[in-house]
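Lab manual, section 2.4: Encoding a predicted structure.

Procedure: take the sequence of the chain (370 residues), apply the prediction step described in section 2.3, and record the output as structure tokens. A sample record is shown.
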Amino acid sequence: MGISTRARIPHGIIPCDVATLAGHSDEVVVCAWSPTCSLLASGSHDSTARIWTIIDGPCNSTLRDVVVLTHAEAFTVEDNGLAAICEVDWKGDGTLLATGSCTGETRIWTADGALVSSFEEDMGHIVSLRWNQMGNSLLSCGSEKVVVWDINTAGSRQEFNFHTARILDADWKNNTSFATCSVDRKIHVCQIGLNRPSKTFSGHRGEINGIRWSPAGGLLASCSDDASIKIWSMSYSSFVRDLRRHTREVYCTEWSPTGPTTHNPNLALLLASSSFDTNINVWDVEQGSPIYSLTRHRNVIYSIEFSPNGEFLASGSLDHWLFVWSVKDGRLIKSFYGGGGVTDISWNKSSDKIAVTYVNKIVCVLDLKM
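Recorded output:
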């Protein structure tokens, strides 16, 4: 079933429900809400990250304070963004924020902006930065290799360098195991303590842009330039599902925070994907078929994310639009035009606010009131 809303745009988010956070001097490419409180982190090509304190309540009085975190002591503007911040991620208890730059440097900060640790490694542009669930290891994935940092000793726990071409993404399976994907069209599942992959998956015919483990860790979704999404299981050597509906490169794939082991166990587990074909598909993975397609965007969609309560899906595109969809039936229920291409989106923990970052140097916080 295809759901097209090109004929009209439903009720937009009104200006008094939008807070514009200005201060970055270059495009803002990433954002993340604290999992425990109303702190929002953003990262920019201006070589800084920022921690914004967002007041609960209406967005027109949302900002109370901002802390600037810099990666640029050794760089200048003339370095053409070499220290650009490309990844941010909060530790699960909200006490620490990790930031990663295009120089391969990873820094860890307290929630009030004090620098705790700085890890420098010749690993290329950081493409993924993720805490494990326990919060004792930080996965720093560079374009050339992957390093797992031991937070307790503030040092390298192990390096992984198994791919033969540029690495594009990484994701934890559990506290000690993770997967990586690459331009070399392979996925390696790695285990801390092992000096070789515990599993290698092959099957895509184009570079693999992203990977995500399902909430329970039993299935791995991958998306590729070959226009497919594939589902993998550690119990099998080949993919168990080959999902095809997109007509161009698939850039993003995200599991819903639903099903067994989640906070929403009574809601069915779904998978969403977005593509250079400007469409989003929401999949029933068990059946191997799309439930519906969302076709409102007019340009590349670089970010999709389910709300923590599993009821909504947000999408942001280079067409300057942020859309919020009902997961239940695919209806477009909220829209916002930001005046610049959307680079990233992030829901707060209570699913009533969403942060959006833009190429035009701003961050917007939207009060959804749903």
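Check your result against the sample. The CA atoms of residues 102 and 125 lie 4 Å apart.
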